[in-house]
Design goal:
Radius of gyration: 22 Å
Number of strands: 7
Order of helices and strands: HHHEEHHEHEHHHEHEHHEH
Strand order of the largest sheet: 4-5-3-6-7
Structural class: alpha/beta
Largest sheet: 5 strands, parallel
Distance between the termini: 31 Å
Strand content: 5-15%
Bound molecules: BIS(adenosine)-5'-pentaphosphate
Number of helices: 13
Shape: elongated
Amino acid sequence: MKWREVIGPTSGAKEKAAETLRGMFGAVVDGLSENGFHGSDSPQSAEREIHFFFKDFDMTRMIPPTVKQQEKDIVFILGGPGSGKGTQCAKLSEEFKLAHLSTGDLLRAEVAKGTEEGKAAAGFMKEGKLVPLELVIRLLGQAIESTDKRAVLVDGFPRSVEQVIKFESMVRPCKVAVFFECSEQVMLKRIMKRASETPPAQRRPDDNPEVASKRFRTFKIESEPAIALLKAAGRLVTVSSEADVSSVHKQLRQLFLI
Ligand code: AP5
């Protein structure tokens, strides 16, 4: 509906709503603003109209903004590599019966399947770069759709301003975003400890000092602006994740008791 408010009414937009797109750019024909912009009046109409013009378009590649998804509260869990997102989400999801969806895990599962998209994703992950948005949003959308929990912890997403905007316009705004503040020194120590405790065959290809420093760089350049955006929107809670696992959990669980 927001898009329809932005484009304005189909007739008389110049007089009735001069600040809308039709008001500003629509031509006036016989006293009416020419309908040079189109906005569907519901997700169902949009789907029907897309099929009318693009018969072969695969709608399953989009997140269907269904009622089922809209009923779920979305909580973004953000933080640098090794800040403890996965560890804390596992504890919170168990205690509060929440769904825990990690974009890193979803991507690793796609890599393990050996699909073309999985192979491409592996290349980005080995370089500590962000995997292209389309795949990440599709995997996340499907996972959200298939959970029946009332709220979802989205671990490791969004990692860019583009991801915030795309997800929140296609699914819904997050209820809250929790940012795990942690120094690079502590994060690197944890990543290297995990690598040293994991047998080489199961070790993550990005858990080494070289790729870790690229992951830190990507976090700074791409993810910090997304965190700043959520903070400016008044939806960010920052929690230090430098203490031991149970102290961090004690602090975090207070947010979920409210
Ligand atoms: P992802 O798998 O999400 O990796 P990450 O963000 O780098 O985070 P980690 O999983 O390493 O750390 P974590 O914060 O979950 O900490 P954890 O609890 O595991 O992403 C991997 C890659 O996938 C990305 O680089 C990117 O290429 C791609 N990707 C993912 N999401 C994407 C997206 N949205 N868009 C595009 N691309 C995306 O803890 C780490 C270690 O520390 C563990 O051993 C743990 O036991 C230990 N630990 C945890 N907490 C504590 C504590 N408090 N004290 C001591 N040790 C602790």
